[in-house]
Specification:
Helix 6 packs parallel to helix 8. It is built from eight helices and ten strands. It has a single domain, classed as Rossmann fold. Strand 1, helix 4 and strand 2 form a beta-alpha-beta unit. Helix content is 33%, strand content 20%. By secondary structure, the protein is of the alpha/beta class. Strands 1, 2, 3, 4, 5, 6, 7, 8, 9 and 10 form a ten-stranded mixed beta sheet that branches.
């Protein structure tokens, strides 16, 4: 059983898991704070409620290349980060955006938005973070809004570039379809959307069946496959043909090619998750 699945079953409450992490990292965080060894734009170890802390700098640099080379991101663009977390990607973008550029991010975890606002917005006023009170079984169990219905808190056609880094890999199909519609609404006609996802096709399904995948997405659920049926949003795989249908229905077209990832065990890949770049259809 993967560590993330085991942790959620052992401590199903997000607050309890975060408390354990904060207590465990308290000596290290205290030492780094007293000795001024921590970058003020990077969250303390005890607050990381998402993975990837150990190699976040390399991943940030990797995705900056994708944003520029694949997504056409420019320093003066207005950016939307869907599921911004603690603002880890935002901290990297502070070194890229010009004073004419702007960053907006939203997340369902208030803790992350609060930390990013205090530590990033206070230093870079063109960076803003918003909390969206969406229901999520793990991260926001008291949330009042549904991911299948809520309206992004931004005006129509207000962004040049939208990215979703490891968001669609944790959403079920009905939520993904709604997000695609909302992203198109807030994106300018000439804008682009870069997203990561786990796509299920003949190659990835064969590798999963042969036990080569780092994520055994073997449980079928509501038009997708999941890692753990008890906690389905832990990792979600979407049939590739279905996802392309969702895109067409929402008014998107793919900017080819699909950049397949290594998650399923394939030998030729670009990153870990599959990466797609979408543009609005006329």
């Amino acid at each position: 059983m993967k560590v993330s699945v085991f942790a959620k079953r052992l401590l199903p409450g997000f607050r309890s898991r975060l408390l354990v992490r904060r207590v465990w990292n308290l000596p290290r965080d205290t030492y780094e704070k007293v000795t001024h060894q921590r970058d003020p734009l990077v969250p303390p170890h005890g607050l990381w409620f998402v993975g990837g802390e150990e190699n976040y700098q390399a991943v940030n640099d990797e995705f900056m290349r994708y944003f520029v080379d694949l997504g056409g991101l420019k320093p003066d663009h207005r950016i939307l980060d869907v599921g911004c977390g603690l603002g880890v990607m935002a901290s990297r973008l502070t070194k890229f955006l010009s004073p004419q550029g702007q960053y907006c991010g939203f997340d369902i975890v208030r803790l992350g938005v609060t930390w990013a606002t205090r530590n990033i917005t206070s230093r870079f006023p063109t960076f803003s973070f918003a909390h969206v009170d969406l229901f999520n079984k793990h991260y926001n169990p008291k949330g009042k809004l549904s991911a299948t219905k809520f309206r992004f808190p931004y005006e129509d056609a207000s962004f040049d570039f939208v990215f979703l880094k490891s968001i669609f890999s944790h959403l079920l199909p009905d939520s993904i379809q709604h997000y695609l519609s909302e992203i198109r609404r807030v994106l300018k006609p000439t804008g682009r959307c870069l997203l990561t996802i786990f796509l299920l096709n003949s190659e990835s399904l064969d590798l999963i069946h042969c036990g080569q995948s780092s994520l055994p997405l073997i449980h079928e659920l509501q038009g997708c496959r999941v890692l753990d049926p008890l906690f389905p949003e832990t990792a979600v795989g979407i049939p590739e043909l279905d996802f392309m249908t969702y895109c067409n229905q929402a008014g998107w077209e793919l900017l080819p090619p699909i950049h397949y990832g290594s998650w399923c065990g394939r030998k030729s890949y670009l990153s870990y998750q599959d990466i797609l770049v979408l543009t609005r259809t006329a």
